[in-house]
Amino acid sequence: MYKIPVSVLVVIHTKDLQVLLLERADHPSYWQSVTGSQDPGETLYQTALREVFEETGLNAANYSLTDWQVENQYEIFEEWRWRYAPDVKINTEHVFGLCLPGIPSIKIAAREHLNYIWLPWQQAAEKVFSSSNAGAILNLPVHQLSNQK
């Protein structure tokens, strides 16, 4: 079964803007926020909940998970296109934020990630390999302020 070319990007952060990054197992030195493709029948919110749990062990429903209403489209890397139908080249990514009260214990999925790190938001934006991920992290202070209103 092919993957759906619709995904979520979940920027997990603390109230003081420390950001969780995960190092990809299939691409060491590629750091990113939680990401994952939508499964058939799932809402984007359900996809975000599932991916956060699968990749970190955290139950996002216990925290403030918000849809930032940001949509990015990008060309799927050639090395990962085999996961999609043959004519699919573009993925649509939906950005969410998950605000935590502090830094919790993380249980990474060993098949997906090698390591994790918490960094201040500016450093996190510089470390990620994806430009859409960097853009989301750079907009974190704006989303943080709008969620406090």
Kindly summarize this structure in a few lines.
With 149 residues, the chain is α+β, with helices and mostly antiparallel strands. It has helices at residues 44-56, 121-127, 131-138, 140-147, and strands spanning 6-14, 18-24, 31-32, 34-37, 64-75, 90-100, 113-120. The protein has a single domain (6-147), classed as Nucleoside Triphosphate Pyrophosphohydrolase (Alpha-Beta Complex), CATH 3.90.79.10.
Give the topology, please.
Blueprint: E1 6-14, E2 18-24, E3 31-32, E4 34-37, H1 44-56, E5 64-75, E6 90-100, E7 113-120, H2 121-127, H3 131-138, H4 140-147
Parallel strand pairs: 1-6
Antiparallel strand pairs: 1-4, 2-3, 2-7, 5-6
Helix pairs in contact: 2-3
Q: What do you see in this structure?
A:
This protein has 149 residues and is an alpha+beta fold. The chain has a single domain, classed as Nucleoside Triphosphate Pyrophosphohydrolase. The protein contains 4 helices and 7 strands; from the N terminus they run ββββαβββααα. The strands form 2 sheets. The chain has a 4-stranded mixed sheet, sandwiched between helices. Strands 3-2-7 form a 3-stranded antiparallel sheet. A hairpin with a 6-residue loop joins strand 2 (18-24) and strand 3. The longest helix is centred in the middle third of the chain and has 13 residues, at 44-56. It starts with 5 loop residues before the first strand and ends with a helix. The model has no long low-confidence stretch (mean pLDDT 94).
